[in-house]
Design a protein that fits this description.
Layout lengths: L8 E9 L5 H12 L3 E11 L5 E5 L20 H7 L7 E10 L3 H9 L12 H18 L1
Antiparallel strand pairs: 1-4, 2-3, 2-4
Length: 145
């Protein structure tokens, strides 16, 4: 069986108020890493000034004590990626731009490759949208009954 060094990766922009994500956001990411669900390959912060200017901060620029976690592929998120992902960051807010390897999908990717298959398209729908849609449709079905 083929063994890929890395599984599929995804880019995320996680918004938050202020310059740095709160402890709960960081804990949620740490929990996923500890569970072996994802591997954080790159992480930068993007903040938009009240005037609308975008500033990008490398993770190493955000800590005074040098306690920066090792990232497998720091620099993977290029400025074009960051600017595109930060497009919806509102003035006065910030976002963490994460590049994560989907560890759960690594074996799936290998199996598809070995079977002669390849993922040629993929679309992601954020969980809040999925849940809002399902809640609205369940309510509609219950009203129709």
């Amino acid at each position: 069986m083929t063994t890929f060094e890395y599984g599929p990766i995804e880019f995320y922009a996680v918004s938050f108020d202020g310059d740095r994500p709160g402890p709960a956001i960081l804990q949620a990411i740490d929990d996923l890493v500890a569970a072996g669900t994802v591997n954080v390959l790159d992480l930068v912060y993007a903040r938009r000034s009240p005037e609308g200017e975008l500033e990008v901060l490398e993770l190493s620029d955000t800590t005074d004590d040098g306690g920066v976690p090792a990232l497998d592929l720091a620099g993977l998120a290029g400025i074009d990626d960051i600017e595109e992902l930060a497009e919806n960051v509102a003035p006065g807010t910030s976002a963490a731009i994460l590049v994560v390897e989907l560890l759960w999908a690594k074996a799936f990717a290998s199996a598809l490759y070995d079977a002669g298959g390849a993922v040629i398209a993929r679309e992601s729908i954020p969980a809040p949208i999925v849940n809002a849609f399902l809640t609205a449709n369940v309510d509609d079905e219950e009203d129709a009954s």
